[in-house]
């Protein structure tokens, strides 16, 4: 099967639409991590993503009858743009079914290539199901985003270019994983020609369908999929990709949202390109690999696989990048409620930069402050700060990895309520579409009172929402039954220290 896949890659026809992209060096990253780090620039494709390769190659395999009826795909954006461009160049009608959470920049780009866009559902699965309905009605040919050998072969041409452009020794190649088409294509070619090169898949930790399949020894469907990196938000690894990946991949690494944000910043600083979060995924995995293994003096290559990002989402990415690099500690510190306490606290910190400070009067004896402190990457410096504060007699709670603190507490004003009452606190992800809030409110029981509400969105596919609810005693044991019926992802936060110290 490996040899057959490599032959398909070598015979793939992609350059009628795609271009050969360069490999950029990353001197800042290379010096920082004591390795030679290289970035394959698929963000420079005409559709700003590698997906044009697989889509165009698949289109070249169609019969004239299939072209006459038109093509269809379900996609969160990058495959859609690739197919739309390929169809326009070939004069073929294209219909793209996209989840309603798809960033507007991708929707407009698909329409700009002349394809008809149908928005359906809040996730890829719903879009894919509707695409099948349209196929039954109109006879369109479905062009899969990843689960197809011709699509995989098109993506594999990236590896052909990489090994030809950089014939010197390469130690490890890092590849982003969504449905697995890109990883399967790169793996097949690299392992056939240069089996000594390690190839590592990188997934977002909240959509790690490949890691789940590797652990289980078979393809599994994730119960929930996070959409922070919507380009890789896939619940199940593709059948054809998995058959290639399973016996070849050297490892699978997962990274979190903050680590992806830090990688976006890293790519910008070294290349001045601004990748989408999934486009920076492989670099985030590369950095984590170096930190975990301590390798030095090696040649490591990753792929910037996409740059279709909403401009207004950059604020959130910039905000979280320092956390992803572990350059900021977020702490809750208890200080005396008396004049000069903050000055004394800052004197204890020494010459460190205070990046954020939040305070509201609580009582006459003590105050809880929310403080951000600039620290060195790696985590050890953060622990040193905490230890120094505790030695000076301060009570410290480390909130650096606390999602409630990062997403909501640092932005909330108003402090505590003036009187005590019982409330249930939950953090939600609302799909970013009209009617999402009304759907939430309508499905809550009529006698529940909302006592706190905080919403944040920076151009992402979903809104981050914190909700406090006063629930009658008789309903409290059934709260999550009602929330499950709404269908949005949620986390209970009633016992979160960020809530207890600043809002309860």
From TrEMBL:
Reactions catalysed: L-threonine = 2-oxobutanoate + NH4(+)
Biological process, per Gene Ontology: isoleucine biosynthetic process; L-serine catabolic process; L-threonine catabolic process
Any Pfam family: Thr_dehydrat_C
Domain of life of the organism encoding this protein: Bacteria
Cofactor(s) this protein requires: pyridoxal 5'-phosphate
Keyword Acyltransferase recorded: no
Pathway: Amino-acid biosynthesis; L-isoleucine biosynthesis; 2-oxobutanoate from L-threonine: step 1/1
EC number(s) on file: 4.3.1.19
CDD domains found in the cross-reference section: ACT_ThrD-I_1, ACT_ThrD-I_2, Thr-dehyd
UniProt keywords, alphabetically: Amino-acid biosynthesis, Branched-chain amino acid biosynthesis, Isoleucine biosynthesis, Lyase, Pyridoxal phosphate, Repeat
PROSITE patterns found in the cross-reference section: ACT_LIKE, DEHYDRATASE_SER_THR
SUPFAM superfamilies: ACT-like, Tryptophan synthase beta subunit-like PLP-dependent enzymes
Gene Ontology MF term list: L-serine ammonia-lyase activity; pyridoxal phosphate binding; threonine deaminase activity
Sequence ranges assigned to domain ACT-like in this UniProt record: 329-401, 424-495
Subunit-level organization: Homotetramer.
PANTHER family: THREONINE DEHYDRATASE, MITOCHONDRIAL (PTHR48078:SF11), THREONINE DEHYDRATASE, MITOCHONDRIAL-RELATED (PTHR48078)
The protein's role, per its UniProt record: Catalyzes the anaerobic formation of alpha-ketobutyrate and ammonia from threonine in a two-step reaction. The first step involved a dehydration of threonine and a production of enamine intermediates (aminocrotonate), which tautomerizes to its imine form (iminobutyrate). Both intermediates are unstable and short-lived. The second step is the nonenzymatic hydrolysis of the enamine/imine intermediates to form 2-ketobutyrate and free ammonia. In the low water environment of the cell, the second step is accelerated by RidA.
Family affiliation: Belongs to the serine/threonine dehydratase family.
UniProt name for this protein: L-threonine dehydratase
Organism: Vreelandella azerica
Gene: ilvA
């Amino acid at each position: 099967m490996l040899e057959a896949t490599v032959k398909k890659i070598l015979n793939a026809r992609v350059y009628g639409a795609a271009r050969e992209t360069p490999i950029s060096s990353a001197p800042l990253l290379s010096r920082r991590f004591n390795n030679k780090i290289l970035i394959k620039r698929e963000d420079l494709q005409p559709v700003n993503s590698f997906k044009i390769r697989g889509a165009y190659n698949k289109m070249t395999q169609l019969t004239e009858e299939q072209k006459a009826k038109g093509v269809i795909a379900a996609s969160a954006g990058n495959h859609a743009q690739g197919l739309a461009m390929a169809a326009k160049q070939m004069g073929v009608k294209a219909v793209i079914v996209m989840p309603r959470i798809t960033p507007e920049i991708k929707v407009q780009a698909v329409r700009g290539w002349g394809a008809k866009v149908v928005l359906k559902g809040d996730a890829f699965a719903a879009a894919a199901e509707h695409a099948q309905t349209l196929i039954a009605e109109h006879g369109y040919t479905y062009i899969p985003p990843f689960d197809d050998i011709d699509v995989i072969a098109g993506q594999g041409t990236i590896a052909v270019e990489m090994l030809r452009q950089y014939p010197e020794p390469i130690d490890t190649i890092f590849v982003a994983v969504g449905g697995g088409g890109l990883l399967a294509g790169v793996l097949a070619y690299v392992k056939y020609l240069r089996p000594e090169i390690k190839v590592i898949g990188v997934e977002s930790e909240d959509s790690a369908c490949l890691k789940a399949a590797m652990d289980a020894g078979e393809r599994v469907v994730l119960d929930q999929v996070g959409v922070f990196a919507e380009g890789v938000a896939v619940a199940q690894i593709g059948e054809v990709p998995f058959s290639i990946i399973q016996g070849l991949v050297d490892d699978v690494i997962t990274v979190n949202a903050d680590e992806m944000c830090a990688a976006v910043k890293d790519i910008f600083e070294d290349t001045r390109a601004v990748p989408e979060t999934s486009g920076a995924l492989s670099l985030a995995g590369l950095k984590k690999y170096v930190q975990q293994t301590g390798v030095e003096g090696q040649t490591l290559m990753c792929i910037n696989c996409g740059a279709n990002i909403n401009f207004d989402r950059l604020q959130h990415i910039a905000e979280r990048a320092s956390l992803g690099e572990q350059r900021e500690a977020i702490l809750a510190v208890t200080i005396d409620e008396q004049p000069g306490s903050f000055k004394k606290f800052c004197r204890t910190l020494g010459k460190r930069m205070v990046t954020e400070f939040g305070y509201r009067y609580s009582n006459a004896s003590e105050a809880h402050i929310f403080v951000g402190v600039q620290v060195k990457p790696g985590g050890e410096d953060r622990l040193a700060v905490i230890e120094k504060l505790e030695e000076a007699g301060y009570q410290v709670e480390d909130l650096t990895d606390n999602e409630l603190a990062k997403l909501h507490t640092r932005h909330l004003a108003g402090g505590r309520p003036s009187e005590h009452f019982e409330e249930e606190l939950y953090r939600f992800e609302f799909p970013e579409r009209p009617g999402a809030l009304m759907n939430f409110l309508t499905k809550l029981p009529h006698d529940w009172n909302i006592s706190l509400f905080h919403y944040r969105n920076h151009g992402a596919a979903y809104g981050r929402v914190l909700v406090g609810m006063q629930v009658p005693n008789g309903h409290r044991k059934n709260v999550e039954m009602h929330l499950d019926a709404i269908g949005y992802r949620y986390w209970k936060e009633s016992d979160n220290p960020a809530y207890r110290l600043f809002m309860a």
